[in-house]
């Protein structure tokens, strides 16, 4: 019997999604080349909050947000900022965002997010344990703290999480202090999410996975892919200096995926939530990620200090970093930490472009109008969380096997009248 040629897969984008897809595909027997203009994990995968946030099963598009938006936008140091020069470009995205607020749509999107998040950490465990890298996941849970919110509202939120199967416990002020004695006593209550995890160095986390990919024979090519063309022989990947060929292509280019899809006939309402972080030199004794419900930010202890993150800015991909957005996180940390405010100063700041879709769901699946073309982008705040499970789904599709969950909700066709890819229909039970 004639030996079957090993298929070559090109993965465009070397963030956590692309790295996980490339590694999983290489493990599955494909010959994989990973492409990225800027190197390995140089975007949001480098500067994110390091939180494997499997508790975040609720889409951002909720009607209650409408009443909060004016105050958020009027506060120059608040959690949300829209650059006035970008307002008109952002309006179509926000209109789609509002259209995802009705109860039926919100419930469907919640179930789709939950399906991914339920498999997120198990998928990482399967991947990491094969390489004795399980220690890269720190499993101490996370806290969502409350300073002024009423107990009734907190209990209502608690029951919402429990109804979705989230392992969560309500703590009072004394229990919070016992768990994290360096938090401010202004915290009256907290929700402890027990099954989440965090990374003490998200960039190094990505590099460890990329190292395994390389060890297995995978190739990384630091090139900017400007276009993808289908031919009778497969796909041409056009860069500024050369053209490369592949049998299959996975687009995992985050916020830059939209430009690659448009010439292929796929229009997606993908925009950029520019995220910021501010690093402190010390972790201030915190053992786990601590988020604030009222202040809408998160603090994660890392090997190089404490990372403050959580702010959102709509200003497009090209505009320069607005350092005020990163430094605006400092007053929140001063309020939540039981320490001398004089010791809290920024060690470094950072900005990255989160690829965000208005329904809070990523695009995962095969291209409806192109064979052997696959999409894995738009993970918004959950790229780190959903990297491994996305890789398992993409690998199953590339192997022509049914994915472990129904991937209809993530199909690119949800944004158009295009028929869903038939491969998205079956799923493992």
From TrEMBL:
Q: Which GO terms describe its molecular function?
A: oxidoreductase activity
Q: What class of enzyme is it?
A: oxidoreductase
Q: Which residues form the FAD dependent oxidoreductase domain?
A: 8-397
Q: Keywords in UniProt for this one?
A: Oxidoreductase
InterPro entries documented for this protein: FAD-dep_OxRdtase, FAD/NAD-bd_sf
Recorded hits in Pfam families, A to Z, give: DAO (PF01266)
For this protein, the Enzyme Commission number is: 1.-.-.-
Instruction: Check the record and name the Gene3D superfamilies matching this protein.
Output: D-Amino Acid Oxidase, subunit A, domain 2 (3.30.9.10), FAD/NAD(P)-binding domain (3.50.50.60)
This one is known as: FAD-dependent oxidoreductase
* Species the sequence originates in: Pseudoalteromonas haloplanktis
């Amino acid at each position: 019997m004639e030996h079957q040629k090993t298929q070559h897969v090109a993965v465009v984008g070397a963030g956590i999604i692309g790295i996980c897809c490339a590694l999983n595909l290489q493990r599955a027997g494909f010959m994989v080349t990973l492409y990225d203009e800027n190197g390995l994990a140089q975007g949001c995968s480098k500067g994110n909050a390091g939180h494997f946030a499997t508790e975040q099963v609720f889409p951002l598009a909720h009607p209650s947000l409408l009443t909060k938006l004016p105050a958020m936008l009027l506060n120059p140091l608040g959690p949300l900022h829209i650059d006035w020069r970008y307002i008109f470009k952002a309006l179509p995205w926000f209109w789609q965002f509002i259209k995802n607020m009705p109860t039926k749509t919100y419930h469907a999107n919640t179930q789709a997010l939950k399906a991914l998040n339920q498999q997120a950490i198990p998928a990482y465990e399967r991947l990491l344990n094969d390489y004795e890298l399980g220690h890269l996941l720190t499993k101490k849970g996370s806290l969502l703290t409350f300073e002024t919110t009423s107990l009734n509202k907190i209990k209502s939120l608690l029951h919402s999480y429990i109804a979705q199967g989230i392992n969560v416990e309500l703590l009072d002020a004394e229990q919070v202090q016992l768990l994290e004695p360096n938090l401010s006593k202004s915290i009256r209550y907290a929700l402890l999410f027990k099954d989440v995890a965090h990374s003490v160095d998200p960039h190094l986390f990505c590099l460890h996975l990329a190292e395994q990919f390389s060890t297995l024979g995978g190739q990384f090519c630091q090139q900017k892919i400007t276009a993808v063309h289908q031919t009778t022989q497969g796909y041409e990947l056009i860069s500024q200096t050369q053209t490369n060929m592949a049998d299959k292509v996975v687009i995992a280019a985050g916020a830059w995926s939209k430009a690659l899809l448009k010439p292929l006939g796929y229009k997606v309402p993908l925009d950029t939530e520019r995220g910021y972080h501010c690093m402190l030199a010390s972790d201030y004794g915190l053992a786990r990620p601590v988020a604030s419900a009222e202040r809408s930010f998160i603090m994660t202890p890392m090997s190089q200090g404490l990372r403050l993150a959580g702010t959102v800015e709509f200003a497009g991909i090209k505009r320069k970093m607005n350092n005020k957005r990163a430094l605006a996180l400092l007053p929140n940390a001063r309020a939540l930490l039981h320490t001398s405010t004089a010791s809290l100063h920024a060690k470094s700041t950072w900005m990255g472009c989160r690829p965000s879709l208005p329904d809070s769901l990523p695009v995962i699946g095969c291209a409806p109008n192109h064979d052997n073309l696959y999409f894995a982008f738009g993970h918004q705040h959950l790229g780190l969380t959903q990297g491994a499970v996305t890789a398992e789904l993409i690998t199953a599709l590339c192997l022509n096997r049914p994915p472990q969950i129904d991937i209809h909700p993530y199909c690119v066709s949800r944004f158009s009248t295009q028929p869903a890819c038939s491969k998205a229909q079956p799923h493992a039970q």
